[in-house]
Amino acid sequence: MPSLADQLALSRNRPAGFDYMRIALAVSIIGLHSLNVTLGLGRALEIQSTLRIGVAMILALFFALSGFLVTASLLRCKSLISFLGLRVLRIGPALAVETTLSAVIIGSLFTELPLAQYLADPKFHAYFLNIVGDIHYELPGVFLHNPLPELVNAQLWTVPYELWCYVILALLAVTTICFNRVAYLVFMVITQIGLAGYDLYRWDEVPIQLRPHLLVFCFLAGVGFYLWRDKVPFNRTVFLFALVLCAAAMATGRGDALAAVPAAYVACYLGLMNPRRSWIVSSGDYSYGLYLYGFVIQQCIATFGPLVQHWYLNILISLPLAFGVAVASWHLVEKHALRLRGQVEKLEAAALARSSIIGFWRRSPERVELRARLGNSSASI
To answer: How far does Cα 315 stand from its chain's mean position?
Structure first.
């Protein structure tokens, strides 16, 4: 039976499935937000509660596939300098541009305050803290009369938890836990038991989405599947079984803590499929731009009144606009930021030359291979 590693090798470590998944999930989020921005939060939550499994699955898959892919990047890094540096390059510049455009352009056009008063308001200044992950959702006088009033960038609520994922993974790297997959498995089992016990005694209201700590656990489950990729089967039956387990756990929200691992397998299976690449994934990665700009564009459309305040019209108008802006974000900002990777690696090389202690400690591959050979020799005696 082929493993995840076998399937990964077939695509030369570049399966198209993950690229299509990111686009599909980003579009799904815009679809969900169309209810919020046209019906208001209360009515939208009523509708979404009837679709709880699908709604909860979207972000679970997003975080899980991120864990799988980011681990591949981590294992190529020599220290936290390159690992965290590459994460900053991927997230920071585009987020900074989106925050600035929303505050300076969108805010100035849609605020009901005089421009001088708008620019002097503390909310305007605080909004720029979004760039460093301190999320603020409002700009002074903006979107006051929308069905979902005042919120400019509600989609950014996940950014702090994505940053927590990277911080936790960095700590696991520094402590070498994620470089020893047995140790990582023990860590995951203990964490799973702890989360299941924690949620067992939490009988408060069940949210539509997975709770943030469970999204982080989805990320960590994705990490685990990458570390054990040569042992985990790539199998349709296992995929369907994991999908059923995930749906059953998410159905009522009481089993959410048990949904992370099967959701991560679902993400890995779908992502490792390798359909033919179309221009939409071969020309760039537009999923981050869709995520960043989708909600604010939807709110802009909703300001034009009842004629366009229908969820399907919001999607039809907002999605092409968001995709166009995402294309521009990739080609004008994100792609150029990623080209700075070489500078990060040079900085890392210089730092490691001064002090090798800052590098990741890993067991030497030669030592592991020698130990395996000695073990085999002893067994044959």
So the answer is: 22
Residues 312-334 pLDDT 10s: 999 999 999 999 999 999 999 99
pLDDT tens profile 121-153: 999 999 999 999 999 999 999 999 999 999 999
The torsion region of residue 232 among left (phi > 0), alpha (psi -120 to 50) and beta comes to beta
Cβ pair 173, 359 in contact under 8 A: no
Type of residue at 124: F
The Cα-based distances of 58 to 80, 166, 187, 360 in angstroms read 29, 20, 25, 33
What does the DSSP assignment read for 329-351?
HIIIIIHHHHTTHHHHHHHHHHH
- Reading the block at residue 76, the tokens are 């190529």
Question: pTM for this structure?
Answer: 0.91
Residue by residue, what is the 3-state secondary structure of 63-124?
Answer: HHHHHHHHHHHHHHCCEHHHHHHHHHHHHHHHHHHHHHHHHHHHHHHHECCCHHHHHHCHHH
Q: Is 138 helix (H, G, I), strand (E, B) or coil?
A: strand
Spell 20-44 as b/e; 16+ CB within 10 A means b: bbbbebbbbbbbbbbbbbbbeeeeb
Cα distances (angstroms) measured from residue 334 to each of 86, 104, 226, 321, 348: 12, 20, 25, 18, 21
Cα angle for residues 255, 205, 25 (degrees, 5° grid): 60
Question: Do residues 68 and 267 make contact, with C-beta atoms less than 8 angstroms apart?
Answer: yes
Q: What angle do CA 178, 159, 130 make, to 5 degrees?
A: 135
The 10s digit of each residue's pLDDT in 27-73 is 999 999 999 999 999 999 899 888 889 999 999 999 999 999 999 99
What's 9's DSSP letter?
A: H
What's the rounded Cα separation, in Å, for the pair 372 and 93? 45
Contact call for residues 32 and 158 (beta carbons, < 8 A):
no
Q: How far is CA 197 from the centre of its chain?
A: 26
Q: What is the pLDDT of residues 204-259, one digit of tens each?
A: 667 888 889 999 999 999 999 999 999 999 999 999 999 999 999 998 777 889 99
